[in-house]
From TrEMBL, chain A:
Function per UniProt: Promotes the exchange of GDP for GTP in EF-1-alpha/GDP, thus allowing the regeneration of EF-1-alpha/GTP that could then be used to form the ternary complex EF-1-alpha/GTP/AAtRNA.
Organism in which the protein naturally occurs: Methanimicrococcus blatticola
Keywords: Elongation factor, Protein biosynthesis
Signal peptide: none
Gene3D superfamilies xref list: 3.30.70.60
Domain (Translation elongation factor EF1B beta/delta subunit guanine nucleotide exchange): residue spans on this chain: 3-89
Coiled-coil region list: none
HAMAP family associated with the record: EF1_beta
Name recorded for this polypeptide: Elongation factor 1-beta
Gene encoding the protein: ef1b
Superkingdom classification of source: Archaea
Any one GO molecular function term: translation elongation factor activity
Family assignment from sequence similarity: Belongs to the EF-1-beta/EF-1-delta family.
UniProtKB/TrEMBL annotation, chain B:
EC number, UniProt record: 3.6.5.3
Protein's recorded name: Elongation factor 1-alpha
Positions with a binding annotation for GTP: 14-21, 91-95, 146-149
Highest taxon listed in the record's lineage: Archaea
Record SUPFAM superfamilies: EF-Tu/eEF-1alpha/eIF2-gamma C-terminal domain, P-loop containing nucleoside triphosphate hydrolases, Translation proteins
Gene3D superfamilies hit by this protein: P-loop containing nucleotide triphosphate hydrolases, Translation factors
HAMAP family for this protein: EF_Tu_A
Family to which the UniProt record says this protein belongs: Belongs to the TRAFAC class translation factor GTPase superfamily. Classic translation factor GTPase family. EF-Tu/EF-1A subfamily.
Length: 89, 424
């Protein structure tokens, strides 16, 4: 069994979304098949908008990162969720 | 670290037991990328257990342990330098469900090393991996015919395996004549750094020389502008701001742009990256840009921003694609309508006609208009999107010409777009 580290970019619902609350919601939403790696990082995009970068580790043979993506997509304050990097560890 | 050298993402692909980890371990060892304390530990271990434990996979395992101990994954562990480039190894996840993320995501490999074990030759997974590399836009390939020690460095066997691999490469659109094939033993270190006395019949480059011979990846700035929209925001005092990553082309302040399939048009008022205004955006830039003349509801995720006029993004009424079926519980027939993921778009598309099934051995069509296709098949299929979507022929704009097919929570197939019937 080997792990896969996925870097997931979560965009807030709007420019005024409380990012700390969103971070907590992300931490709470990550299903048992995934493990949060390190801190959730704020990345400036444009015009005051910030993305949250979340690194989650899942098992390679557990069937992908989809369950994590789906769970994060359920968060009302998250506008979009995209996996931007994958790496076997 | 050698910041002046050009950087390349290198994917190492191949069947699960063909020695990928040993290969990467050996490569990092020979290029001096393994930290001295790991090598020391490695030597001790080897001494303790005798020569049979002298597997370079061990180096990779130790690095993995190191990383797992740390709080944060540090991908710097998988970097190595040659004279000309510095490389980051892209270690592709094995599970097929990650294919969707590799197609829609950002981590693109610039080149790949395909590892094929000489005793086994081409396996089902080898074909799949070569196809996926092409789908993912990797055009530069090096083929290592590995585990040559296990076939007593037999040139005849080496040539047999080359023939098998070449047939698949041809089918998928690579040119075998332009690809270096190298007999290696990652375990023994043959032809990794220098040409080995064990293969006196081989006169070509070593793996490291072949890596140096790769062409430097170019940013696709000369292609028409394409920015798949990730999200659109309304920001007070600014207006409508789409965000996304530039895939191809250049966007400058003042440009007239359009958003397809929505059809909205406007003028670029300002572009920001990392909260700083920039005069122009190039491929790879993650930007937000404000556009005069559009409202928030005129543009949405899945739209593609491009130049207004005749180079606008192509909206597909129908398209033809070459796909490989990765997994499906039964048979796929005409009428099947799964969800296609391409750039930021997700649109259901119907299998209109299954035009050809391809023979993996010759690359020739094996069957015209087959009644069905199933897992493991490669085929040419015509699709109809159920809602308007932007897709480009991969030959013209590869970044917008690949897709993953999803159904039942699985990645069913991966494909490239061959041609598009434009929606008028």
């Amino acid at each position: 069994m080997s792990g896969v580290a996925a870097t997931i970019k979560v965009m807030p619902a709007d420019a005024d979304t409380d990012l700390n609350a969103l971070k907590e919601a992300i931490k709470a939403a990550i299903p048992a098949s995934g493990k949060l790696n390190g801190e959730i990082i704020e990345e400036p995009i444009a015009f005051g908008l910030k993305a949250l970068m979340v690194t989650v580790i899942v098992e390679d043979d557990e069937g992908g990162i989809e369950p994590v993506e789906d769970a994060l997509n359920e968060i009302p304050e998250a506008e979009s969720v995209s996996v931007i990097n994958l790496d076997r560890i | 670290m050698a910041a002046e050298k050009p950087h390349m993402n290198l994917a190492v692909i191949g069947h699960i037991d063909h020695g990928k980890s040993t290969f990467v371990g050996r490569l990092m060892f020979e290029t001096g990328a393994v930290p001295p304390h790991v090598i020391e530990k490695f030597k001790e271990e080897a001494k303790l257990k005798g020569k049979e434990s002298f597997a370079f996979a061990w180096v990779m395992d130790s690095l993995k342990e190191e990383r797992e101990r740390g709080i944060t994954i540090d991908i710097a562990h998988k970097r190595f330098d040659t004279e000309k480039y510095y490389f980051t190894v892209v270690d592709c996840p094995g599970h097929r469900d990650f294919v969707k993320n590799m197609i829609t995501g950002a981590s693109q490999a610039d080149a790949a090393v395909l590892v094929v074990a000489a005793p086994d030759g081409v396996m089902a997974q080898t074909k799949e991996h070569i196809f996926l590399s092409k789908t993912l836009g990797i055009n530069q390939l090096i083929v290592a015919i590995n585990k040559m020690d296990a076939v007593k460095y037999d040139e005849a066997r080496y040539k047999e395996v080359i023939e098998q691999v070449s047939a698949i490469l041809k089918m998928i659109g690579f040119k075998p004549d332009e690809i270096p094939f190298i007999p290696t033993s990652a375990f023994e270190g043959d032809n990794i750094k220098e040409n080995s006395p064990n293969t006196p019949w081989y006169k070509g480059p070593s793996i490291i020389q072949a890596l140096n011979n790769l062409k430097e990846p170019e940013k696709p700035t000369s292609l028409p502008l394409r920015i798949p929209v990730e999200d659109a925001y309304t920001i007070s005092g600014i207006g409508t701001v789409p965000v996304g990553r530039v895939e191809t082309g250049i966007m400058k302040k003042g440009d007239a742009v359009c958003f397809m399939p929505s059809g909205a048009t406007g003028e670029v008022k300002s572009i920001e990256m990392h909260h700083e205004e920039i005069p122009q955006a190039v491929p790879g830039d993650n930007i937000g840009w404000s556009v005069r003349g559009i409202g928030k509801n005129d543009v949405r995720r899945g739209d593609v921003c491009g130049p207004a006029g005749d180079k606008a993004p192509t909206v597909a009424d129908e398209f033809t694609g070459q796909i490989v079926v990765l997994q499906h519980p039964s048979a796929i027939t005409v009428g099947y309508t799964p969800v296609f993921h391409s750039h930021t778009a997700q649109v259901a598309c119907m299998f209109m006609s299954i035009d050809k099934k391809l023979d993996p051995k010759t690359g020739q069509p094996k069957e015209e208009n087959p009644a069905f296709i199933k897992a493991g098949d490669a085929a040419i299929v015509t699709f109809k999107p159920m809602k308007p979507m932007v897709l480009e022929p991969a030959k013209e704009i590869p970044q917008l010409g690949r897709f993953a097919v999803r159904d039942m929570g699985m990645t069913i197939a991966a494909g490239v777009c061959l041609s598009v019937k434009k929606k008028e």
